[in-house]
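Sample entry (280 residues):
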Amino acid sequence: MTSRCSYSRCSTNKNDQAANNTANLLGCSRCKSARYCSTACQKKDWVFHKFKCVSPEVSRHEVDGFSIEAIQSAINSASPGDIVVIKEGAYGDVGESTLFVNKPIYLWGGEENRDNVVLNCNLVIDESDGDHDGSKAVVVADLFLDGTVTISDNNYKSVTLCNIELKCPNIELKCPNNSPRDALKISGCKGKCLILGCDIYGGSDGVHIASEGVHLKRTCIQYAQHRGIFSRRIFTVEDCEVSGCGGYGIKGSAGWTEKGRHNDIQPGPWSSDGPWSSGW
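Predicted structure, serialized as tokens:
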């Protein structure tokens, strides 16, 4: 349980004395974990907290050890709907190890700072553990991942990446490279896919979309070798930044929807209204 206001942008978190005065913090009535200095902070944080607001009665599995294998073991032991908690620390060596989330679970990292949980691996979210009825979701939250993420064939109700910093390895800022990998690739999702509050750096393309129902919200995509976002499916961007990419911000032949107060998209041959009339 946190001793600070769970809303990360709360000004009281800059004041150690105020932040540690737990008597003044209001607890979330459902999960009993998140705590707030005011109802205003609670309302502002709900856009993020709702993906971690789970009853304390849900089974939790804490990772035992500081290796990718230890995380995989905890995931393998979990049942659909369970929570796997990764404690603060660095996991794995920089290389080509892969972590598989192959069932509908919650995978949670640092409670107060995503940078406190570092995974040196690639992450694959699929349904290789077997077919599920589509009533449950996958949520991966509060991690720094030095690798790539692939979300592929699944029947989950939804897949959500929340507050993830993703750095595709061997990417030099604004410099072309020989890596053919996309930082985040999404394909074959039957349900919705939400990328919320994430920072995605590098990759051949920053985000490659090959599924319907993808929504990028409050997410920053930078320094991809080619395109920030590449898609042949309709998708949504809401209050996002796409910049510093080698080609241009978005290439989307089916068009896309822009929501929110402000989207800062690197200019390219297509406008925010959809594809350039000349096609591919």
